[in-house]
Amino acid sequence: MLFTGLITLLGAGLIWEWAGITLGEKARPAQLYGGIALVVMTLTAARAGVGWSALLLLAAALASLPLFPPRRFASGLLYVGCAALTLFWLRERPGSGRVEVFFLLFAVWATDSGAYLAGRLIGGPKLAPRLSPSKTWAGLAGGVGAAFLIGVTFAALASPMPEGSGVLRAGLLGALLALIAQGGDLAESALKRRFGKKDSGRLIPGHGGLLDRLDGLLAAAPAAALFALILGRRTLLWI
Prior knowledge:
By secondary structure, the chain is mainly alpha-helical. It is built from 8 helices and 2 strands, in the order H-H-H-H-H-E-E-H-H-H. The chain folds into 2 domains: about 1-90; about 95-239, no CATH class. It has helices at about 1-25, 25-50, 50-65, 70-90, 95-120, 135-160, 165-195, 210-230, and strands at about 125-130, 130-135. It has a two-stranded antiparallel sheet with strand order 1-2.
């Protein structure tokens, strides 16, 4: 119940901010529509499964096209909804779901922290100055390295007798998720720059809104679910 409630609130808040950025003064009806859609979708996922929720998400996105043109609101609804559904799907995987969700969260958090520290301490050439002037290549390397270490540590602690190759794969997976999370961060920066916004919202004083804090997770969650799907019944962390 707590997990469902958290994902519901975050999803509704994220689409609220997305609509505010992309639709400006005309955002309020879309914000209400998107919030209700995310609440219905997440509650359906908790009660009836992710499959039915995915159909509801697709229907809500298609129905929003004539209501809130152009397509950028529908794309945001799909983007946020897909991340929420993949988190539900990961959490429900038999035996490994909880571990996989925590692995994903820690990898993304390590990416943000490692990138910030390396960027501040080392500096150097900018990663994408047109999109985000503060991000550097050193920060990218620091984020990937931190996520690699988290993956190795997580796998070593979560398995009573970890194999060396499995622990290494967990580290590499953490590094890959870090790269994807950094891509999500840059995509959100590009969105804000496109619409002349510095922050996605004012929810967190000095840190912006939910999109500013969860942009990496929005990109990494579907990727983690895809990796888990490819691995089948085996755990996401190691083979």
